[in-house]
Amino acid sequence: MSTIPDNDLLVTGVSLPACCSRHRYPSSTNSPSSRPSSHLLHAPVLRVNSDADLCYVVWKCTSPSTASNASQQLNKLHSQWIPQRHVCAVGPASPDANTALGRGPHDSKFEVDNPRVALWSSTSGSMGRFTVAKQSIRAGERAFQAAAFAVIVRQSLVPRRCHWCFAKLRRTALQCGEFS
Fold first, then answer.
1. DSSP per-residue letters across 59-98
2. pLDDT for position 127
3. What is the DSSP secondary structure assignment for residue 107, as one 8-state letter?
4. Does any domain span residue 42?
5. What's 30's DSSP letter?
6. CB burial class (10 A; 0-12, 13-18, 19+) of residue 12?
7. pTM of the prediction?
8. Structural domain ending residue among the three candidates 26, 54, 89
9. pLDDT above 70 for 29
10. Strand pairing report for 162-163 and 174-175
11. How many CB atoms lie within 10 A of CB 11?
């Protein structure tokens, strides 16, 4: 069992504690969210149990609490064993979004067209690209624009990788094949 350094992890199909998911779903109660979705966490994977196909992930609480104990809440650590198929290391598309998208030198720059978001992808190449907000985007505001594109997802990846589509604008990240 080895330690993997800090990563940005996309965790899919897993419920976070209520304090970390409350700002995502205002109707949450004090129990863990009953509807698992996708979460982007800056967290180390401390242990990998290959026999059980599990990763032990530890992250700082992401609650934007305004209470007097806000500093204590932000320093609170959570940990959870998560199936490896639901954890994917991700990072900003490199060297830049235009190169990652296969755009030519005469195409408009993704970063110029979309100042509110950054283009990210998996570091292992096992997942497609997605956008991450760099600032707060209110309901009804355009999050990003991009030329139309098509994605083919192998059936074997359907239960393992998230599908970020326009349902995200409804505060939901759907698993591939979850929508009909």
1. EE------STTHHHHHH-EEEEEEEGGGEEEEEE-SS-HH
2. 65
3. S
4. yes
5. S
6. buried
7. 0.54
8. 89
9. no
10. antiparallel
11. 23
